[in-house]
């Protein structure tokens, strides 16, 4: 019988234990994004408001002319329905075409109707406003529009009256023919007997009814004609066309409000799109999960100070505070030298002043500090002067910043001392030290007797002596996945990554951890620059037993 067993491979200790969650478009996420980038969408809203107001004030506004119509309606009709009918007649293309033909305008009926604004005051009063490019043209257009509409309305009412009269006339002719027929039949009836008398009476009664109906129809036709004429005469222009004062303030306010709404929509859209499509980490918890180590210190984002040309930039308080916090964390070490690397992760511009502030805090604390700058820019020494002078009561001697002349990441003093001190360094550091020691020995043998070689050997010896004698070794390195950090172990034992919020992705941070640990270095904690003030996460992972991660190093 074959026994089945399950075997779970142990997770390597040097791999990150967590990964930051994928941002979800939740209400909290969107609200936090808006709070963090409020300057962008507020600025675009203000810019849109200003542009709208300036545009409305700068562009010429069209002239307007206004006239008032009083429109009479038939008695007994629904006033609201009749006014709706009149508005529909005013909006017809026939009225617009009539006005265009009268004034010989170069525009379409739709363009003319778009320049007309209606305001119903009551069931019989209507205010019409017409816009044009010039004041005189607006008055002429309004007058022609009023005349054309009243004529068109009267014509429609007359056509309805004529159609009614025509229908009634045909009916009257039919009834008159019936009267003649009834009269002829009456004359032929013999009234000598009782039956003839009854038939004659019925014919007379019917003829009387038809005659009465004819009279009623004739009165209706006459009443309709009179009413149509009276309605046409009663409907007129109550107030003649007159120029309307331009409401500049109202127009500017409306344009500014429209611009603000448009700018606000664009700004919020940009904020949401960039937040949803970006893979950069901003929260302390996400950075800690990506690195697998706690974010022990973080400083909020602060405005950068303006710097005049030719003057050095003043140290930012956030950088100074972060450097002091790192120095305080290493002040608890009781024995042995403290050798650490400050690693820049896509943020050498922030890591340099933090390292300078760390060195300044250590020097003020009375420690002898060995400083090396093996970064790509090599500007740590320039940042060290302002950091030492910031808040100092008296002059402070600045330590010498070692800047190797080799291209790329240079080997440190531990590589040349590894051959004479078997217990120094990690396994990778030992191998690198042995190789460097052999190369240095060969080069020294070939160059024996040379003055330049003696001078170089003396400088190397001085560097090694300073490195061994220093209480604290601080090395600035920018961690580049393309260049590697194999030589960092020849300088120090631990690496403190400096992460700037919103610059590095989770994959970049995990790659950084793999590079550091593959070089045999430890990561006690990480620090964070420009953390969001609205970040509510802690960034402190549970403390784990890291004794299996560490390799024994000999103190040189």
DSSP summary, beta strand count = 11
Q: How would you classify the helix and strand content by structural class?
A: alpha/beta
Please give the count of helices. 16
Percent in strands? 5-15%
Can you give the mean pLDDT? 78
Order of helices and strands: HHEHHHEEHHEHHEHEHEHEHHHEEHE
CATH architectural category of the largest domain: 3-Layer(aba) Sandwich
Using the alpha-carbon principal axes, give the shape: rod-shaped
Rg calc? 49 Å
Count the domains: 2
What's the CATH topology label of the largest domain?
Answer: Rossmann fold
CATH-defined superfamily of the largest domain? P-loop containing nucleotide triphosphate hydrolases
The strands making up the biggest β-sheet line up spatially as 5-11-10-6-9-7-8
Helix content: 40-55%
Largest sheet: 7 strands, parallel
Outline the structure in words:
There is one protein chain. The protein is α/β, with parallel strands linked by helices and 556 residues long. The protein has 2 domains: 62-245, Bacterial polysaccharide co-polymerase-like (2-Layer Sandwich); 281-302 and 314-443 and 456-531, Rossmann fold. It contains 16 helices and 11 strands. It has helices at residues 27-36, 38-58, 79-90, 93-103, 109-114, 135-188, 194-234, 248-277, 284-291, 317-330, 348-364, 380-389, 413-417, 427-446, 451-469, 506-518, and strands at residues 63-70, 116-120, 125-132, 236-244, 295-300, 338-345, 369-373, 401-402, 472-478, 494-500, 526-531. It has a 7-stranded parallel sheet with strand order 5-11-10-6-9-7-8, with helices on both faces. Helix 4 (93-103) packs across helix 6 (135-188), helix 6 runs antiparallel to helix 7 (194-234) and helix 11 (348-364) crosses helix 12. The longest helix has 54 residues, at 135-188. It is rod-shaped and about 160 Å long. It starts with 26 loop residues before the first helix and ends in a 25-residue tail after the last strand.
């Amino acid at each position: 019988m074959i026994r089945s067993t399950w075997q779970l491979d142990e997770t390597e200790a040097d791999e990150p234990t967590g990964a930051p969650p994928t941002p979800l478009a939740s209400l909290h996420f969107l609200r936090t994004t808006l709070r963090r980038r409020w300057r962008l969408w507020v600025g675009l809203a203000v810019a849109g408001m200003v542009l709208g107001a300036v545009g409305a004030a700068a562009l010429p506004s069209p002239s307007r002319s206004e006239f008032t119509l009083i429109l009479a309606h038939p008695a007994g009709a629904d006033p609201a329905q009749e006014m709706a009918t009149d508005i529909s007649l005013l909006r017809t293309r026939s009225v617009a075409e009539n006005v265009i033909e009268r004034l010989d305008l170069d525009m379409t009926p739709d363009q003319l109707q778009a320049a007309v604004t209606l305001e119903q005051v009551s069931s019989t009063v209507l205010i019409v406003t017409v816009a044009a490019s010039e004041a005189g043209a607006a008055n002429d257009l309004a007058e022609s529009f009023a005349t054309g509409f009243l004529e068109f309305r009267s014509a429609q009412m007359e056509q309805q009256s004529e159609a009614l009269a025509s229908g009634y006339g045909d009916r009257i002719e039919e009834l008159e023919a019936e009267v003649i027929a009834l009269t002829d039949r009456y004359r032929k009836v013999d009234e000598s007997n009782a039956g003839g008398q009854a038939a004659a009476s019925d014919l007379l009664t019917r003829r009387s009814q038809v005659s009465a109906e004819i009279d009623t129809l004739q009165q209706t036709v006459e009443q309709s004609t009179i009413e149509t004429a009276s309605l046409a005469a009663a409907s007129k222009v109550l107030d003649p066309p007159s120029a309307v004062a331009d409401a500049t303030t109202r127009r500017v306010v409306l344009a500014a409000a429209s611009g603000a709404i448009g700018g606000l929509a664009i700004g919020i859209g940009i904020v949401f799109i960039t937040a949803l499509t970006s893979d950069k980490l901003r929260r302390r918890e996400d950075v800690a999960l990506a690195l697998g180590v706690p974010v022990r210190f973080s400083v909020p984002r602060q405005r950068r100070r303006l710097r005049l040309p030719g003057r050095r930039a003043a140290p930012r308080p956030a950088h100074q505070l972060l450097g002091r916090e790192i120095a305080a964390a290493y002040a608890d070490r009781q024995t042995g030298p403290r050798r650490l690397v400050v690693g820049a992760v896509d943020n050498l511009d922030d890591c340099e002043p933090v390292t300078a502030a760390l060195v300044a805090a250590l020097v003020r604390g009375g420690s002898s500090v060995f400083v090396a700058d093996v970064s790509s820019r090599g500007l740590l020494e320039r940042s060290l002067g302002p950091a030492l002078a910031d808040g100092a009561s008296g002059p402070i001697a600045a330590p010498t910043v070692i800047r190797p002349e080799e291209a790329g990441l240079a080997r440190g003093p531990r590589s040349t001392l590894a051959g004479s001190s078997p217990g120094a360094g990690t396994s990778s550091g030992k191998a690198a030290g042995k190789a460097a020691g052999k190369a240095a020995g060969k080069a020294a043998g070939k160059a024996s007797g040379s003055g330049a070689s003696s001078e170089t050997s003396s400088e190397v010896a001085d560097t090694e002596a300073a490195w061994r004698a220093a209480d604290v070794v601080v090395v600035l390195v920018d961690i580049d996945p393309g260049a590697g950090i194999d030589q960092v172990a020849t300088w120090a034992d631990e690496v403190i990554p400096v992460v700037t919020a919103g610059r590095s992705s989770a994959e970049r941070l995990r790659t950084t951890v793999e590079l550091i640990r593959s070089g045999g270095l430890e990561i006690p904690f990480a620090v964070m620059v420009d953390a969001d003030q609205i970040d509510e996460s802690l960034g402190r992972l549970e403390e784990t037993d890291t004794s299996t991660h560490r390799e024994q190093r000999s103190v040189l």
